């Protein structure tokens, strides 16, 4: 009898969770559908880009209600993760090798420069050590995920974490729209170099996908590869900050208590890529993966747009804005220089 009660309670919670997600998810699906429909008539802009802008419009007007929050978050995070995994089923190992030694070298040097600049600029502006470390990891690796992984290792409080996530996400959104134009001017939108610029700078996977979509499908896919390689270095960055911040014994304690993992979708991406390379998936099935991945992606981009709030950065004050702009400027200039040298 107790088992039946427990099962019924669990099912009830799952149903409630689904009902909480549904309103925001439905809005994102509608936005994605409208974006793709309009994109047919404006192919130079594309449905993905339109979905982002429509999401921003909705999210900053009638869509900013709490009832839509969980659904838009689900679209932004979960659906995008599924999209990335499915994308792996459309790419062979030969595609991954496009990055080569020069591509990985670019990523490592770009991350080192970003970390050093974030720490030095933050120190010059008078920000705390914890805040500087969070800004460094968020900008160098993968935005909110890196900040969330770093915070417990360095004993950062929720206020420091929340402000950093806000600044990094809003800055990333601005760069998401700006980088395609910079790539067009500097690299004439050449695929590999444009992908390196976008994938080597932007903070979140969603921003990379969105920015790459503003250029073309090839740039979006290759930029995602650059970004995924950055994410793989998350473990090393977080544990390095933990070692710097704490004494040896404390650092070891943090390492054991903090579960720092490579995100599951990165592992899923490489598994799918391996299976496709081995011929487990047929070309026809790969095309299905691509179709589903693209649809999930556009819905996710609508969710990303809905969760953008430019007013949040203004609330943090001019000093925080200067900090964010300083890091962004260094990232752009260093990325352009390194791409010209290595790629």
Topology record:
Elements: H1 2-41, H2 47-59, H3 69-88, H4 93-96, H5 100-125, H6 129-142, H7 144-154, H8 158-187, H9 191-201, H10 205-215, H11 217-232, H12 234-245, H13 248-257, H14 264-277, H15 283-306, H16 311-315, H17 318-342
Report what the structure shows.
The protein is mainly α and 343 residues long. It folds into two domains: 1-82 and 294-309, no CATH class; 90-280 and 310-342, no CATH class. It contains 17 helices and no strands. The chain has helices at residues 2-41, 47-59, 69-88, 93-96, 100-125, 129-142, 144-154, 158-187, 191-201, 205-215, 217-232, 234-245, 248-257, 264-277, 283-306, 311-315, 318-342. It is globular and about 50 Å long. The termini are far apart.
Helix share of residues? over 70%
Q: How many strand elements?
A: 0
Mean pLDDT: 82
Gyration radius over CA: 20 Å
Order of helices and strands: HHHHHHHHHHHHHHHHH
Low-confidence stretches: none
Q: What gap, in angstroms, lies between the N and C termini?
A: 66 Å
Broad shape = globular
Overall tally of domains: 2
The total count of helices amounts to 17
* Class computed from helices, strands and strand pairing: mainly alpha
Oligomer: single chain
Observed structural traits:
343 residues, mainly alpha, 0% strand
What's the short story on this structure?
With 343 residues, the protein is mainly α. Helix content is 83%, strand content 0%.
């Amino acid at each position: 009898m107790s088992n039946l009660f427990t099962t019924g309670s669990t099912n009830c919670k799952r149903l409630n969770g689904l009902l909480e997600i549904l309103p925001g998810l439905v809005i994102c699906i509608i936005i994605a559908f409208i974006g793709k429909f309009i994109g047919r008539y404006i192919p130079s802009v594309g449905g993905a880009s339109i979905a982002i802008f429509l999401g921003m419009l909705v999210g900053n007007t009638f869509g900013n209600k709490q009832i839509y929050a969980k659904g838009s978050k689900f679209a932004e995070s979960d659906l995008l993760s599924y999209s990335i995994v499915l994308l792996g089923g459309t790419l062979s190992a030969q595609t991954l090798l496009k990055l080569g030694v020069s591509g990985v070298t670019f990523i490592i040097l770009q991350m080192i420069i970003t970390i050093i600049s974030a720490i030095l600029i933050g120190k010059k502006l008078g920000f705390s050590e914890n805040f500087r470390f969070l800004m460094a990891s968020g900008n160098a690796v993968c935005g909110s995920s890196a900040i969330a992984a770093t915070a417990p290792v360095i004993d950062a409080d929720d206020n420091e974490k929340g402000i950093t996530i806000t600044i990094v996400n809003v800055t990333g959104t601005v760069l998401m729209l700006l980088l395609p134009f910079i790539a067009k001017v500097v690299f004439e939108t050449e695929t590999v170099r444009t992908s390196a610029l976008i994938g080597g700078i932007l903070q979140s996977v969603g921003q990379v996908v969105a920015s790459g979509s503003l250029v073309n499908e090839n740039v979006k896919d290759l930029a995602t590869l650059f970004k995924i390689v950055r994410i793989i270095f998350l473990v090393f960055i977080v544990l390095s900050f933990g070692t710097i911040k704490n004494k040896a014994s404390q650092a070891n304690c943090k390492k054991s208590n903090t579960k720092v993992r490579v995100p599951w979708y990165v592992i899923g991406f490489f598994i799918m890529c391996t299976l496709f390379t081995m011929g487990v998936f047929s070309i026809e099935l790969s095309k299905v993966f691509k179709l589903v991945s693209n649809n999930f992606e556009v819905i996710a981009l609508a969710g990303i747009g809905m969760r953008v709030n430019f007013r949040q950065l203004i609330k943090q004050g001019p000093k925080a804005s200067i900090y964010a702009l300083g890091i962004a400027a260094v990232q752009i200039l260093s990325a352009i220089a390194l791409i010209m040298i290595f790629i």
